Amino acid sequence: MNRPNAPRPLGAPSQAPVEDGPESPMDPAIQRGLFNSPPFSGSSKSVPQVPFRSRAPSLSKPLPPEPPLQSVASPPKPDLPPPPKSEPLPPKADTSPTPKRALTSKGNCRGCGEPIIGKSIKAADGRLTGRYHKQCFVCKTCASPFATTSFYVLGDHPYCEQHYHTLNHSLCHACTRGIEGEYLETEARQKYHPSCFTCGQCGVVLARDYFDVGDGVYCERHAFGQVGQLGGGSSRGGGSGGLLGVGLGGGVGGARRNPERRTTRLMMM
């Protein structure tokens, strides 16, 4: 017998019908168990299918194709000369130290008398004998070193120019410099360069004849004028005035001041 208030047997819980199924299995309805696909009942009404959504085709224009790469011809290389042939290296020089030779003395220095070891100085023309230390090769009179390689030899000793001509009595009486070559010699044995023997007043060169008045030499023209300035012809004893001749006196105690003609000699030193 059926009881009207009899409890119903427990069964599966009723589910609310779902009109549209989820689109993805990851839908929260499926994850919570709220949606089960209903069994196929054979009825003509079927569960509507979710249409497959596909992405719309891109409306952007396609890129134009890239032009093919063209090969660029490289410029021709210049013709280079062939590399030089390597020459064989020279043999290595022997760098081993050479034994030093014992220095021997070259004799004693003529200047200081000490032995000479090493470099020395000697006359190349042989006019001066012996050897000298470099610091000892000086003028024998003034001990000055020679500025150049030139020097003078007198009595087998070196001299500078000035002291050589002084000892050799070859100094010019006018310029006091050394005479080398031609020179004029007066009757008083005074030596002159030919260009230095001139009139004491006008400066003309006296080639041969000259007049000796007082302590100077003059040409004929100025010699008589010089006598007048010196008071020639005057006498202290009342002698006759005027120019006196050669060998004539000017009275007692009078000095002879008349010009005298003299002659030079051309010599070679």
Shape: elongated
Biggest sheet: strand arrangement: 4-3-8
The oligomeric state is single chain
Number of distinct helices: 3
Q: Find the structural class using helix and strand composition.
A: little secondary structure
Structure characterization notes:
The chain has about 270 residues and is largely without helices or strands. Helix content is about 10%, strand content about 10%. The protein has helices at about 30, 160-170, 220-230; strands at about 150-155, 160, 180-185, 190, 210-215, 215-220, 260-265, 265-269. It has a three-stranded antiparallel sheet with strand order 4-3-8, with no helix packed on it. Strands 6-5-7 form a three-stranded antiparallel sheet, covered by helices on one side. It has a two-stranded antiparallel ribbon with strand order 1-2. The radius of gyration is 70 Å and the shape is elongated. About 15% of the residues are buried.
How would you briefly describe this protein structure?
This protein is largely without helices or strands and 269 residues long. The protein is built from 3 helices and 8 strands.
Features:
three-stranded antiparallel sheet; 8 strands; single chain; 8% helix; little secondary structure; 269 residues; elongated
Walk me through the topology.
Blueprint: H1 28-31, E1 152-153, E2 158-159, H2 161-168, E3 182-185, E4 191-192, E5 209-213, E6 216-218, H3 220-229, E7 260-263, E8 265-268
